[in-house]
Amino acid sequence: THSPMSGRRVGFCLSDKKRRRMNLGAFADFCIDLTQPLVPQGPFDVIVHKLSDVIVEAEHDSQSQHEIPPLQSYVSTHPSTVLLDPLPAMTQLLDRFASYRIMSKLHNSLRDWRICSPPYLEIHSASDLSSIQQTVMAQGLSFPLSQFPLLLNAGSLTDIHPPCVLQSFVNHGAVLHKVFVVGDKHFCVERPSLKNFPSGPCDRKTIFFNSHQVSKPESSSDLTMPCLPPPSSQAVAALVRELRVQLGMALFGVDVILNIHTHTLTVIDINIFPGYEGVPQFFSSLLSHIESVLDKQTSVCPRATSTPKTTLTTGGPSAAL
């Protein structure tokens, strides 16, 4: 029997930085150059991309602004090409407000699993700042408030820069669980996180920190401390299933913590196509997911048998698509 990958071409549309982080150097020949015409580089059955990076860069970089339309045009004229993930699904998570609204709805859809997200407040513009203290209290938020920086009292509200989201900080034993999703598989990696803080306002100044630095695998700082037991694997699986449906995505990450008082699984962030650090099975899982996507596509629309055969391997630099 033929593998679904037989005769198929997969292109990677990722930044140099992303390729380096994911050790995809061996696949440089299969990376799409958005500065060149796409049709001669194709045809592509699947394009694995993180165009969200390009979209963010395009806000202040004219070069990036010219890279998005060619791919959109290619996909519109090649409707059988599968984008991992669909652009509309990916771009919705670039809107922090939309992302937090998705998380806030998990409390209802996953009530049986005692999964929730912390109370939060949307700050759309500087004009909201005059009434922000009253709004914080009315919405049931409590200090500390997490917004990168960590706001410890009402006076520190002057340190925020709208538009942004304020989220009640939940004490979680300084452990962050990063859930990496690849299609129907997911992997949970434990990382260091912020230590516990007394609830309610305190006299300390705002704490400025880089969330990526605090939660790096090798991270250690005076903001971190030791830990709680891992979350229920069944609850995490239920969360992943629900988010796959809600997001319409296959490549994403979810940051979850365990409330030290209630042990409630608490969702604090959703990430577009994360780095999958600490997941050695990522690439084999990605290939498995691509195969399943192409298999479904083939069953719906059988492919002509005259297509030149292309091989796909996961080993060393000679790997080919």
Automatic annotation (TrEMBL):
<feature type="domain" description="Inositol-tetrakisphosphate 1-kinase N-terminal">
    <location>
        <begin position="10"/>
        <end position="89"/>
    </location>
</feature>
<comment type="function">
    <text>Kinase that can phosphorylate various inositol polyphosphate such as Ins(3,4,5,6)P4 or Ins(1,3,4)P3.</text>
</comment>
<dbReference type="Pfam" id="PF17927">
    <property type="entry name" value="Ins134_P3_kin_N"/>
</dbReference>
<feature type="domain" description="Inositol 1,3,4-trisphosphate 5/6-kinase ATP-grasp">
    <location>
        <begin position="113"/>
        <end position="290"/>
    </location>
</feature>
<dbReference type="GO" id="GO:0032957">
    <property type="term" value="P:inositol trisphosphate metabolic process"/>
</dbReference>
<dbReference type="Pfam" id="PF05770">
    <property type="entry name" value="Ins134_P3_kin"/>
</dbReference>
<dbReference type="InterPro" id="IPR041429">
    <property type="entry name" value="ITPK1_N"/>
</dbReference>
<protein>
    <recommendedName>
        <fullName>Inositol-tetrakisphosphate 1-kinase</fullName>
        <ecNumber>2.7.1.134</ecNumber>
    </recommendedName>
</protein>
<feature type="binding site">
    <location>
        <position position="269"/>
    </location>
    <ligand>
        <name>Mg(2+) 1</name>
    </ligand>
</feature>
<keyword id="KW-0067">ATP-binding</keyword>
<dbReference type="GO" id="GO:0005737">
    <property type="term" value="C:cytoplasm"/>
</dbReference>
<dbReference type="GO" id="GO:0052726">
    <property type="term" value="F:inositol-1,3,4-trisphosphate 5-kinase activity"/>
</dbReference>
<feature type="binding site">
    <location>
        <position position="255"/>
    </location>
    <ligand>
        <name>Mg(2+) 1</name>
    </ligand>
</feature>
<dbReference type="InterPro" id="IPR008656">
    <property type="entry name" value="Inositol_tetrakis-P_1-kinase"/>
</dbReference>
<comment type="similarity">
    <text>Belongs to the ITPK1 family.</text>
</comment>
<keyword id="KW-0479">Metal-binding</keyword>
<dbReference type="GO" id="GO:0052725">
    <property type="term" value="F:inositol-1,3,4-trisphosphate 6-kinase activity"/>
</dbReference>
<keyword id="KW-0460">Magnesium</keyword>
<keyword id="KW-0547">Nucleotide-binding</keyword>
<dbReference type="GO" id="GO:0047325">
    <property type="term" value="F:inositol-3,4,5,6-tetrakisphosphate 1-kinase activity"/>
</dbReference>
<feature type="binding site">
    <location>
        <position position="271"/>
    </location>
    <ligand>
        <name>Mg(2+) 2</name>
    </ligand>
</feature>
<dbReference type="GO" id="GO:0000287">
    <property type="term" value="F:magnesium ion binding"/>
</dbReference>
<dbReference type="GO" id="GO:0005524">
    <property type="term" value="F:ATP binding"/>
</dbReference>
<comment type="subunit">
    <text>Monomer.</text>
</comment>
<feature type="region of interest" description="Disordered">
    <location>
        <begin position="302"/>
        <end position="321"/>
    </location>
</feature>
<feature type="binding site">
    <location>
        <position position="269"/>
    </location>
    <ligand>
        <name>Mg(2+) 2</name>
    </ligand>
</feature>
<feature type="compositionally biased region" description="Low complexity">
    <location>
        <begin position="305"/>
        <end position="321"/>
    </location>
</feature>
<dbReference type="InterPro" id="IPR040464">
    <property type="entry name" value="InsP(3)kin_ATP-grasp"/>
</dbReference>
<keyword id="KW-0418">Kinase</keyword>
<keyword id="KW-0808">Transferase</keyword>
